[in-house]
Amino acid sequence: MKRGLVEAAGEDRGTYEARLERLRERLRGAGVSIALIYGDVYRSDDIAHLTNLCIYWNEGVVAVPADGPPAFLAKLSKRVHPWMQRTSIFTDLRASQKLPQLIGEYLAESAPGAIALVDRAWWPADLADGVAAAAPERTFVDLPDAVRDARIVLDELDRSDLERAGGLVAAGLEAAATAGGSPEERVAALELAARGAGARDVLASCRETADGTAIECSVQFANVWARGARVERGAAALRDALDAAAGALRAGATVAALQAAAGADVATRLISHTDLASGGDLRPAADASAEPLPDGSAVVVEVRLGDRVLADTYVVSGEGATPITRTPAEVAA
Amino acid sequence: MSLEERDWRWGRARSRMADAGMDGLLAYAPGWRREDLRYLADVQLRGSFAFLYLPFEGEATAFVLPSDRDAFADAGWVQDVRDLEPAALGSVLARLRGPGQPQKLGISHSELIPLGFRDALADGLGGGTRLMGATKLMSAARMVKSDEELARMRHCGRITDAAWEGLLAALRPGVTEYELVASTEAALKRMGATDNFMLIASGGDEVRGMTPPSERRLGPGDMVRTELTPQCNGYWTQICRSAVLGSANDGQRASFELFNEALEAGLGVLRSGVTAHDVARAENDVFTARGMGEYCSAQWTRVRGHGHGAHLDEVPIIEGEQTVLERNSVVIVHPNTFTPLAGYHVLGDPVVVTDEGWEPLVSTPRVLFEVEI
User: Fold this and answer.
1) Nearest partner of A59 among A9, A105, A124, judged by Cα
2) Which residues of B touch A1 (CB under 8 A)?
3) Between A and B, how many residue pairs show a Cβ–Cβ distance under 8 A?
């Protein structure tokens, strides 16, 4: 479950409304009446991006009408609705253990027209079938990446949160390195450094390898993730490869160009910040290899040599890329 | 764990497969519900999804992302480990099709399997295989724990106790809820826990329930409530405790007395052979006798307890469920709810069900903790 800091939308409500309106424009352009976005505790960053809602456990569906405020439909009890209203932009929150029927009832109240299941292939099959059965008069269409596409280029709020997430990755990795001791002690130090400074989620691992301790972590601050990885020894070749790849990183570059820059000796991987909750598992590398990187996007560049891995998160611009997960000492080195 | 343990677990699954007429079981492990595959393979997973195929006879086959290959090699329970191709589940279908293709394939966590995967399976297996849900089958198989599982849960209970001590040590005026969780998380990770489920709430009698932590700073008189649930070596144990920063007020003491009496009533009837709801009824009767019966309803609370094991919230559910408790099942009994006495209050202990009663998994005293300022 997500057990880190969850703050209210507060002064950023306007940003969330702007993000919702961008989605609504896409819906209207596609002739869709309502978008349904599925999320569970493991994978709900699209929902968080639009609404600041933290699905801290279980699963739910956000309904975004083409003309109207969003609603959150979930099995989570009504008892948590006051918290959800305080921390998100939702005013319409509904709960039922029979989620397909709950969604069907919502659709019955809503404007006619086609319903988009965002990223339909990743919807639980039973839920998708159940929703279709609960609203048999509706036409359902797939709208892949409808929210993810809009997250690729960071807006001001995402950029700010990304910088914070990057800082927490750097602080966590430094704390783990400084702590020394067993992998468990290092992970503990990393967790304290990151969560103690407001991380919403931390995915950390530490293992002993032939080249000393290898530490990896992904940290979420608010609704944005950053990632970094370090190895205790044998990092020089990896650092050279990573720096070479980062040197080729700029708006318009492709993964193939970064792989070429890093060299054939290492395995180079690029992960969009939008996919870090799942470590890029839902995006096979082939999907991204030919796509030029947009200006203002954020990516993780990871280089791997056997058991050793080095990774940093970068913000991409036309002039190059800015690392956001390095400590001041690492930057100075 | 030993191969004997593996065989015992596979036997429990296969026994239920036989009852259901299944000749194959496919355990699906999405990022947030990996327990069935972990149970069958004794591995910790990192990838976003994985599958394990357990035929009614013969060896199992796992299908994993690169990040999980080493885990299977380390555990040694499953030798046949294949790369998972998410796009079309090619490796899964290659294993299932042909001679020995199951006629009735149970899928655990079928309710979570994505459309893309489900359609790939259905299309790839064709009319020769009927797909069925097997989530309840696996939940039932996992309910009774082996000696090796109980040993792990006793170890996790000790870590749970120590994590609670870590929380108490971090309690001071001015600390934020998220800092408190961070300290606790660090404490349990230091002791080897690999995951945690931790809801928290702080304040007075206005508190209605627990959530992820906020920026709220604790002050004198605040009661901190938490469900602290580390996972160690694949097994979860939960403790529910409340602590006051400073001296407890009369309402907080009265609340504790009520909740402790309810918990003791639940534990007083708990043994193998009773139903899960018998335990819930005993807890709720205490509230009813004190004129607080309404606070046992769904408006105020979820359940009066639940099972523990490879998943933190598994059968039996202690509220409205007629499941008969079996020896070596593990439950937490917790009458957590809101009352006007002191707001939301939590108190609960995980126990192993025995024929005579129960064995505690934690040793943290069952008191209302008061932390000196």
Assistant:
1) A124
2) 197-199, 212
3) 133
Q: Are A294 and A152 in contact (CB under 8 A)?
A: yes
Asked if A6 lies within 8 A of B213 by C-beta distance, the reply is yes
Q: Which of A176, A170, A174 is nearest to A314 (CA)?
A: A170
* DSSP-based three-state secondary structure for B75: helix
Q: Work out the burial of residue B148: count CB atoms within 10 Å of its CB; fewer than 13 is exposed, 13-18 middle, 19 or more buried.
A: middle
Indicate the residue of B31, B182, B212 with minimum beta-carbon distance to A192. Answer: B182
**What letter would DSSP give residue B373?**
-
pLDDT in tens, chain A (333 residues): 999 999 999 999 999 999 999 999 999 999 999 999 999 999 999 999 999 999 999 999 999 999 999 999 999 889 999 999 999 999 999 999 999 999 999 999 999 999 999 999 999 999 999 999 999 999 999 999 999 999 999 999 999 999 999 999 999 999 999 998 999 999 999 999 999 999 999 999 999 988 888 999 999 999 999 999 999 887 888 999 999 999 999 999 998 999 999 999 999 999 999 999 999 998 866 555 678 999 999 999 999 988 889 999 999 999 999 999 998 777 777
**What's the pLDDT tens digit per position in B6-52?**
999 999 999 999 999 999 999 999 999 999 999 999 999 999 999 99
Of A79, A124, A191, the CB nearest to B182: A191
Which secondary-structure segment (H or E) carries B350?
strand B349-353
The phi, psi pair for A224, rounded to 5°, reads -125, 140
Q: Scan for tokens 């400074």, then name that residue.
A: A197
Across the interface, of B116, B119, B301, the residue whose CB is closest to A122 is B116
Paired tokens of B336: 């957590």
Contacts of B115 in chain A (CB under 8 A): 120-125, 128
| Cβ-proximal residues to B222 (8 Å cutoff; 6+ apart), any chain | B202, B203, B204, B244, B245
Give B301's contacts in chain A (Cβ within 8 Å): 79
CA distances from A19 to A24, A50, A115, A192, A320 (A): 9, 6, 19, 32, 27
Measured between alpha carbons, how far is B20 from B32 in angstroms, rounded to an integer? 26
Q: In this complex, which of B116, B192, B209 lies closest to A184 when CB atoms are compared?
A: B192
Round to whole Å and give the CA distance between A252 and A250: 6
Task: Give CA–CA dist A114/B125, Å, rounded.
Answer: 32
CB neighbours (10 Å) of residue B217? 13
Interface with A, mutate which of B46, B159, B190, B319 (most A CBs under 10 A): B190
**Which of A281, A302, A304 to probe by mutation at the B interface, max B CB count within 10 Å?**
A281
**Which residue on chain A is closest to B188 by alpha carbon?**
A188
Question: CA–CA distance from A41 to each of A44, A60, B117 (Å)?
Answer: 6, 9, 20
Residue type, A42: Y
* B72 CB neighbour count, 10 Å cutoff: 21
My answer on whether omega of the bond before A144 falls inside 30° of 0, hence cis, is no
- Which of A288, A161, A304, A325 lies closest to A242 in space, CA to CA? A304
Instruction: Enter the tokens of residue A306.
Output: 């056997």
Q: Which amino acid does the sequence have at A296? A: G
Interface of A with B in 29-58 (CB under 8 A): 40-43, 54, 56-57
Q: Which one-letter DSSP state was computed for residue A170? A: H
CB hemisphere CA count around B200 (13 angstroms) = 34
- Joined together, the tokens standing for residue B17 give 């497969």
Whether the complex's predicted ipTM is more than 0.85 is answered with yes
Q: How far apart are CA B316 and CA B322, in angstroms?
A: 9
